[in-house]
């Protein structure tokens, strides 16, 4: 028993997420004044202040995006007029149009959107999507030459093409016109297309600046339909596809994205597209809520009209329905399947075909999940063995292994970023001589700039600040590693190398109720650049915890407020590595509704946990062997901090000489008159947790006196 007990306390500290907590500066008086002016609650006002809104006018524009006065896209996109002219001439002359799409959700929804709209407008149009397995991202010379052989006169790229100088130059040599629609970062040399539509080329102040590839396609298609006077029956299907692609691509939900996505989420449940209905059915998504749908009639000076539809349903989807249910089923096809499946799903008018394709998406997504889990485990094992000790020095992680499916390594890269807090470049060998990879980033590191810094070592590459893709000769791997480390050390400081958790406000558990949750609906739809509100509660007790599913922690936490205990259930996704959590922690979380047996309750989705700040301070700064006395349940105790090996240890001694010993972050403590007869005890049990809290309170008084 002694060996086991001493061994337990000599282990390294319990592992917890290694995060940077950044809590917004609270402005209670300002929030109260804004609440009065806008008829909102102070907590919602504080959340809006955190998101950069400080005047009633800014709040009004955010809460009611329909009130935005939109400029004409023709004013903001210099090449939109020539794009419309090229498409109108192609339709009038029945010139073959070919769409070159991409195999992610943004690219596939963009392709489907333009296919449906151009066919409805009378165009002769087909599409091609490059093979992820054999060709990689973007239009290439093979596709261009194949289009030429098929008699295509106009190529329209969607969600790609901005970096494809040589393929576009080849198309122009062959006499083909090219319109590029893309949203990725601008390279140093633009391709010689007839027209380029990219929000990165327009003014930063434009409300269209943040649209994804599907947003550019939507603007082009609706503008064309309006010029041709054929908008009837077109807008609503395109809005559904726009919403699906925008959220799945993690585009910012600001500007026109917020306006159109808010409408789209309200219309998706009753979409007439069989593919959308099939996805919703197979994904098990249920519309909910009582938000009033945005007006169907466009009120402002925009050539992009709103959907013409019957009286809107009060039921609406939420971004997480797409982000976690519908989007992954589409993306899975592009990662490990045939994109044609999704194009057929989103363009068919046959419900039977739609359901067949949706079930294929479901099955392939299940395979994708298993593949991701296996590769993630292998990647973690490799990193722990080879790189974990050098991450603080290198400030970037480059992981390349054979036999990984490059269709899913981007997902694994995101999970490694969450785990290690550094930018991740992950790749796999296509053959002995070539590597293809994906990159994911942290806020302070720009992926596309990093790839440009290494351009002479790479084959194809592209992306934006947060993510990218690349290929390279295998012989360049070590030089690439050195170059990326050099770049990372130029832009990252040691304090950046922890995942950043931005927290809106502190809330006690007694305030977490349905009323607060409903107030937060004013901020929806939430997503990129308008994140879900994140709250934190200090020093809660972990009452129950267990592993469920594939490594999730399900738990109940409690807090005593005004001598009354409040409990609430919580879930921590993929936190199996942190099980068991310490008995006392600070928690950061989002609020979620749970639906079960017809009942709705508020639960927490944990995204951050740390030792209570007082406990951290005590163990870090309290004088070793400082001690004091205190009374608990009418009994006298002595407590203090003592050195045990390399760790500080809290010891609590009663009048009978029995000692309770604990180290920070440990679940298990020792109880006995000496270490020879000490037994292990679970510190999360109330009888131990309560006396520990009383001891810490006494030591805090002593610390203040010192």
From TrEMBL:
Keywords annotated in UniProt: Exonuclease, Hydrolase, Nuclease
Compositional bias per record (Basic and acidic residues), positions renumbered to this chain: 288-300
Span list, region Disordered: 287-318
Domain of life, source organism: Bacteria
GO molecular function list: exonuclease activity; nucleic acid binding
Annotated ranges, domain DHHA1: 396-489
Name used for this protein in its record: Single-stranded-DNA-specific exonuclease RecJ
Pfam families noted in UniProt: DHH, DHHA1, RecJ_OB
Family from the record: Belongs to the RecJ family.
Residues in DDH domain copies: 96-246
RecJ OB domain location: 503-606
Database matches in PANTHER family: SINGLE-STRANDED-DNA-SPECIFIC EXONUCLEASE RECJ
Signal sequence region: none
Entries under InterPro entries matching the protein: DDH_dom (IPR001667), DHH_sf (IPR038763), DHHA1_dom (IPR003156), RecJ_OB (IPR041122), SSDNA_exonuclease_RecJ (IPR051673)
Amino acid composition bias (Pro residues), ranges on this chain: 304-313
